[in-house]
Amino acid sequence: LHLAARNGQKKCMSKLLEHGADVNVCNNEGLTEIHWLAVNGRTELLRDLVQHVSDVDVEDEMGQTALHVACQNGHKTTVQCLLDSSADINRPNVSGATPLYFA
């Protein structure tokens, strides 16, 4: 799933998700797929992924959600996609900073 997303393989990613690929697996950087897509502003792929994620506010080891990292990286369309998917703009990370702080 990570490889398909990194290479922009939307069809492949969709097939993997259809067949039950685990969206919570972390890559070697400790990021789940939703975090990686948010960090890199891959909104089109993120729109597909959020339909298969049970919790858009899943946290990384620093308590950061996809919304935190999208805000930190200035990806406005990704931020909007996550907000449209009910991401919590007031959820603090381990340092107490919310996505709103980074926006």
* Low-pLDDT sequence parts: none
- Which bin fits the share of residues in helices? 40-55%
Q: Distance between termini? A: 28 Å
Q: State the fourth-level CATH superfamily.
A: Ankyrin repeat-containing domain
Radius of gyration: 13 Å
CATH names the topology as Serine Threonine Protein Phosphatase 5, Tetratricopeptide repeat
Number of helices: 7
CATH class: Mainly Alpha
The portion of residues forming beta strands comes to under 5%
Count of extended strands: 0
Mean pLDDT score: 94
Order of helices and strands: HHHHHHH
Shape designation: globular
Biggest sheet descriptor: none
Structural class: mainly alpha
When the domains are counted, the total is 1
Question: What would you say the CATH architecture is?
Answer: Alpha Horseshoe
Explained architecture:
The chain is mostly helical and 103 residues long. The protein has a single domain, classed as Ankyrin repeat-containing domain (Serine Threonine Protein Phosphatase 5, Tetratricopeptide repeat, Alpha Horseshoe). Helices cover 47% and strands 0% of the residues. The chain is built from 7 helices and no strands. Helix 3 (33-39) packs antiparallel against helix 4 (43-49). This is E3 ubiquitin-protein ligase HACE1. ANK repeats lie at residues 1-28, 29-61, 62-94. Keywords: ANK repeat, Repeat.
Index terms:
single chain, 103 residues, mainly alpha, Serine Threonine Protein Phosphatase 5, Tetratricopeptide repeat, 7 helices, repeat, Ankyrin_rpt-contain_sf
